[in-house]
Fold this sequence. Notes:
This protein is globular. It is of the alpha/beta class. 44% of the residues lie in helices and 18% in strands. It folds into two domains: 3-200, Alpha-Beta Complex (Spore Coat Polysaccharide Biosynthesis Protein SpsA, Chain A); 204-273, no CATH class. 44% of the residues are buried. Helix 8 (227-243) packs antiparallel against helix 9.
Amino acid sequence: MTPEQLAILIPTRNRPAILRKTLEELLKLGFGPHPLLVYDDASDDAGAIATVVASWPGSRLIRSDTRTGQAKGRNRLMREVGTEFALFLDDDSWPENRSALLSGLEIMSRDGLVVATFQYRSLADGKLSAPPEQGRMPVSSFLGGASIFHVPKVLAVGGYRDVFVYGYEEPELAMRLWLAGMKIQYLPGVIVAHNHFETPGEKRDYREYDYLYARNSILMSSLNMPLWFGLPHGLARSLRRSFFQFRNAWPKLMGTLTGIWFSVALRGERVPCPFTKAIEWSRFNRRCKA
């Protein structure tokens, strides 16, 4: 498999210095021959992002004039890329070894996986996202910044739901891929460095964050399961998450109410699976997480 068959896709917003560090590390590791597409989600300083992306020979920058969120941004990247496989990274992550990654890609291609997901290693404290002894296994979700997608297969189910913006967008997409009979697996041996930190100007908006997670935790079930089962199933998840995190009570309440309303209002986007498949997914989801 040639480098041109695996593109690197990165969504970003307002983090040119962090993005620059990521691209520098990727080039050091020999990823230069791979096509690079970056989605700029309406950064305040578009020129700064453009300058960073231009440092990668042959790269492409896709810019949105209005903020859309990660879900729509990643969909745009997949529709523009033109390659069969794509490595999704966050703007603060990079694989530590190119050969290991390409070996993972060969396994994925050989075994017909739709998504292969890998290990995160935090540069801040060295923590791993999965136990180091964890072997290859099927999983019910993936790391959005540490996964390879078979692009045509992911787009065949519609990709991410744009309405999610962010928050549970990965497990929701994984659920639809699983319902379509596709395989997602965690592959050991590939480690993705996660250079995550927040500067004063880049702090997460936790009011928005808690609103979206409260809303999307309902929609993940109500849009993909029979409504009579999916709505209470998602509502229980939303309330459980809100109960264990004591902050932003009002945004969480509004997110929960919006999730209930959207479950009905977005009926055109509902693709409910049979009840038996909903039960099967719920059991699979509980036992198969990396």
